[in-house]
Design goal:
By secondary structure, this protein is an all-alpha fold. The chain has one domain. Helix 1 packs antiparallel against helix 2. The longest helix is centred in the first third of the chain and has 53 residues. The chain is elongated, with a radius of gyration of 24 Å. The mean pLDDT is about 85. This is SLATT domain-containing protein. It comes from Paraburkholderia panacisoli. Keywords: Membrane, Transmembrane, Transmembrane helix.
Amino acid sequence: MTTLPAYEPPVDENELLLKWIRRARESQMSHYDMADLLSARDRWIGWLVTALTAFVGTAAFAALTLTAISIEMRVFVGIVSVTAVVSAALQTFLRYAERAEKHRAAGARYGAVRRRLEAVFAGDPDARDGHYLTAIRDELDRLAEDSPNVPPHIFYRTQRTLSRDTPRSRDA
């Protein structure tokens, strides 16, 4: 289990911006990590369904041409056929591809907010209007409400990866 350091609220505007930048980056990367995981699961089940249905189709065709098929082979083909149907149903029910896309979109939105926060922190005069903190806070709140949940183990893994300060392709 991961223990988090004690929470210390920011004491000034720059510290607040740095905390928001860190949180936005962690959220961005954890959503991208979750999207990658769900996409991999979707591909794995897709390959399984494809292979199993190809086997069942071939076995059914062979059964039409051969009259003497052993009972063991019939049972095996039946089991593979049921496994193919269950796999296809799981792929539809779990909606990995759809969920992955929602996480990718959330990651992109967190990335946009993070870049805006970095521009504010860097002193970009165009990024600082009269109510920029309120606008950014509102956007972060909307993102937190609208984004799908990332399981804690994925979020903590992402935090550990980011704490090693390794460059990531999606860090821009």
